[in-house]
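Question (not urgent): is this output format expected?
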Amino acid sequence: MTDQPAFQRARSAEAKQAREAAILDVARTLGSRRGIREVTLTDIAAEVGMHKSALLRYFETREQIFLNLTAEGWREWSAALRADLAKQEQGTPAEVAAAFSSTLAARPLFCDLLAQAPLNLERNVSIEAVRGFKLGTLQEVARIGDELHRLLGLNEEQAVDTVATATSMAGASWQMATPGPRLRELYTSDPQLGHAVVEVEPRLRRVLTALLLGLIDGTNQH
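Got this back:
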């Protein structure tokens, strides 16, 4: 627990926003340090300096806290990726794949959240929370799609497939890349298990380059 005094209940919209921001900041820090799966609502409340029942006045569940961070991650990653792509006047599949893989690999917490969102986070929040999250994600996918259309001529379906492949692979690869100390020792000590130690960025880059080349080739043949 931090040394800060326990929060008093927010009495204004501004105070409520400050409480919510403090909770999200703590969840972000704990998630980065321990991994999302290891962080409980009690952990977050204790670190913020609130009782768990008080924290539930601001977020309906632990999963809503992390789903909010996932939505935040989508906005931040989309902006960074689009800024990278905007620098390219005539991007190649390899260059576009490199932008995707480098920006995702640079955001380990977001990669962790990408894996947890469909498995857990979306399943213990209100329908309204899921709807808002999905609509926000679709908006960012559309923005990325505009850049993919400009650089590679991808249509909407191809762009959605590209973003879905990149983000789902980033989430899965990050989980494999962070197996924990005991499993990592096993993988590195046995040559037969060396393939289990995954490097996120190179794998993403290879797969996305192949995907984009295939999409462009398929389009050209029609």
